[in-house]
Every structure is written in C-alpha cells, then in structure tokens.
Write a structure and sequence with these properties.
Order of helices and strands: HEEHEHHEHEHEEHEHEHH
Strand order of the largest sheet: 1-3-2-4-5-8-9
Largest sheet: 7 strands, mixed
Shape: globular
Number of domains: 2
Oligomer: single chain
Strand content: 5-15%
CATH superfamily of the largest domain: Alpha/Beta hydrolase fold, catalytic domain
CATH architecture of the largest domain: 3-Layer(aba) Sandwich
Number of helices: 10
CATH topology of the largest domain: Rossmann fold
Distance between the termini: 84 Å
Mean pLDDT: 87
Length: 312
C-alpha cells in the first residue's frame, strides 16, 4: 500500500512538473522563432507589417469590403481584388486589428475590436457608396456572420468563403482540435505567444500564389475564436440580405459540414451555395481569379444590386 501511494505521489509530482516545464520551454522556443521571423518583416511607422497593410482599388459605385482570415492579411485578396476592381467595383481589402502587429498589440485584443473594425469599414464605405457587399474568408467569415445574425452588418449582400464555424480534426493528432484547445487553455499562460505550425491548405495544380502569413498569436486569441464559433451554433439565425456560401472540395483547416449546416438553417431573402471542387481552404488564393470575379459580378447583379460602372 505504501509503495502504491509513493508511486502515485511520484507520478503526480512528475505530471505537475511537466505541466509547469513544458509551457515554459514552448514559450522560449516560440519567442526565439518569433524574433527570427520578425527580423525579416518590414514594418511601417505604426509597427504594422507592410505586407499586411489595407488597400483600395477601383472607383465603382458599388463597394466590396474584403475581410481576411486567421493568420492572413489583405494580401490574401491580392489576386482576386484587381479582377473585381476591373469589373467596376470599389474594392476595399481591410486589415483586422492585431494581424501584422507586434505581440504587445495582440495581447490586448478583444473580440469587440474585430467586430468594431468591420463595422467601421462598412460605415466608411456607405458614406461614399450606395451599396456595399462584404466578402469574407475563414475567421473573417465567422466574424462577419456573427455581425450579420446580430443585425450589426449594414451590408446589401454577404459572400462567405470557407467560414470558420468549427475547426477540422484532419491535422490534429490523438485528440480533437477542441480537446487540444481545452488542454492548452488550462496549462498555457493566456499571454504566451503561440506559433501556428500548420501551413495553409492548397490543392490546385499548378500551385497557387502563397499567402504572406502572421503565424504568431497569444494563446488567448484561440479562446476568442472558439467563443465566436460557439455563438454561431445558435439555431434559427436570420439576416435581411442575400448570402452566398463558397466551400472548397476539401478543407483540412475548418469543417465545411459545420458551415453548410449553419447555412441550411439560415433564414435569408436569397441563399446560394457553391462548392469549388479543385480548391482547398484558402479560397481567395485557390480559386480561378477571373472566373470567380465573373461569378461574383453576376451573383451581385442577380440580387438587384446596381453597379453602373461594371462591364457586362
């Protein structure tokens, strides 16, 4: 009995020691890797990575607001945005707060800053454009969907590309991604810098252009993502504008079935589902840019949204 108790005590000691040492070791490794990555990043006077700066193209009457996803930046739209501008739209690719910024900024982030940034971009476009359509990818899709179902997205239509309604388990060893999140949420410091080690998911051949990513985030950012995804599980959501959902043929980053289930239950004036079979998760880079711009243009016209500067 005594030996058994001693064994249990030793096991408990080593489990506690491991739980304390592993986060400290991982924190050191990630900090070193961040400093190495950051040395190659050009930043503007405000500390924002130059590749992550927002931009505006075109001068059409109808505005398109493009919202990027987790780890990405406005650069993810760099191929599709010019195609959309050529079809007569004003195209605004925004940057979500925190992305491309130093860790100190990210550590202070709250969800409301993401929501408020999207709302502010829409309001600014509304001042100069009679109609605004939002195109959003992955995490950006989850954020804009949250705003939409909470009646806070002043848009005329919404296009969601592989929105993050749940994380896929394809690249998660042993445990599900949610279980890994729950473990990490308990043992890792909230302010600890964590590197996303997974590359973005591409399927097209020949390979598409690569995204310029900001893979380092404090641990608490993952909690903000799961809060948003959990909020979107509420059934019976409705919006007062048309919605198009675009999913890849295979997605190893987020669960397409979760997005499709949400979309099926969604109440909206018009809904369109399109599955791009050859594509992977990063649809803004995996799609055939010219064909996608044509499809978006025709869909917007079908919704009765005018675009006098567009070409037929």
């Amino acid at each position: 009995m005594i030996n058994h108790m001693e064994t249990l005590s030793k096991m408990t000691f080593w489990l506690i020691l491991t739980a304390l040492i592993m986060p400290m070791g991982a924190c050191t490794v990630f900090n070193v890797r961040y400093r190495s990555w950051d040395r190659n990043i050009e930043r503007d006077a405000d500390g924002v990575a130059v590749f992550a700066l927002p931009y505006t193209l075109g001068d059409g009457d109808t505005a398109l607001l493009l919202v990027h996803g987790f780890g990405d930046s406005p650069q993810v739209w760099s191929e599709l945005a010019p195609e959309l501008a050529e079809r007569g739209y004003t195209v605004r690719a925004m940057r979500l707060p925190g992305w491309g910024e130093p860790p100190a900024v990210k550590r202070a982030l709250r969800r409301k800053e993401w929501f408020e940034a999207i709302e502010a971009e829409v309001r600014a476009l509304r001042k100069t454009h009679p109609e605004v359509v939002v195109l959003a990818h992955s995490m950006g899709g989850a954020l804009t969907a949250w705003l939409a179902v909470n009646d806070r997205l002043e848009a005329d239509a919404l296009v969601l590309y592989a929105p993050m309604f749940d994380i896929a388990n394809d690249r998660s060893p042993v445990l599900s991604t949610r279980q890994w999140f729950e473990v990490g949420d308990r043992i890792l410091p909230r302010r600890m810098l964590v590197e996303s080690l997974f590359p973005d998911h591409a399927r097209v051949n020949p390979p598409r252009p690569r995204t310029l990513r900001d893979p380092f985030v404090p641990n608490h950012i993952y909690r903000l993502l799961y809060q948003t995804m959990d909020d979107l599980r509420e059934p019976g959501a409705w919006v007062n504008f048309p919605v198009q959902l675009v999913l890849p043929g295979e997605d190893r980053v987020v669960r397409s079935d979760a997005a499709e289930a949400w979309f099926k239950a969604l109440q909206a004036p018009a809904k369109t589902l399109h599955i791009e079979e050859p594509a992977g998760h990063v649809l803004p880079m995996d799609l055939h840019f010219s064909r996608e711009a044509d499809r978006i243009h025709l869909w917007i016209q079908k919704q009765g949204i005018n675009n006098p500067g567009s070409t037929p």
